[in-house]
Amino acid sequence: MSEPAPNSSPRIGTAEREAALADLGAHLEAGRLDPEEYGERSAKVTEARTAADLEPLFADLPEPRPHRGAGAVAAPVTGAAPRAGGPSALARWGPAVSGALPIIALILFFTVPIANSWVFFLLIPLGGALFAQSRRADDGRRDRDE
């Protein structure tokens, strides 16, 4: 096997691609990327073979971004994407969705032909519990950040 040229970009592995995807997720959560652009950039990250392939995907974005340097290797992703300072999408949209759940349950009750259609009304407390839990989790993260 031949030696790589000195100016060539080092190859990246799964850990570096996962770290780049986590960084893109942080930008999506912060509102810097819309879902369509996030999808396009994520597809390019999964196809990236070298560190140079990742650079144009983050050129117009602030930190976090994949770091490249002599012997720099990204750590594997072990948890959620870094917090960008704002609430999560679930916490942001949760109140609106939970407010719409009674209407959604009523529509499903009258339009879906099943014998026990009353089950759709269980969406209301289940959704409330889900969104309340996400609010508690966000409040805990915010307290640790301050």
UniProtKB/TrEMBL annotation:
Ranges in coiled-coil conformation: none
Keywords linked to the UniProt accession: Membrane, Transmembrane, Transmembrane helix
Spans traversing the lipid bilayer: 103-132
Segments for region (Disordered): 30-89
Extent of Low complexity compositional bias: 69-87
Ranges where the DUF1707 domain occurs: 11-62
Residue ranges, compositional bias (Basic and acidic residues): 30-52
Domain of life the protein comes from: Bacteria
Protein name as it appears in the record: DUF1707 domain-containing protein
Taxonomic classification: Bacteria, Bacillati, Actinomycetota, Actinomycetes, Pseudonocardiales
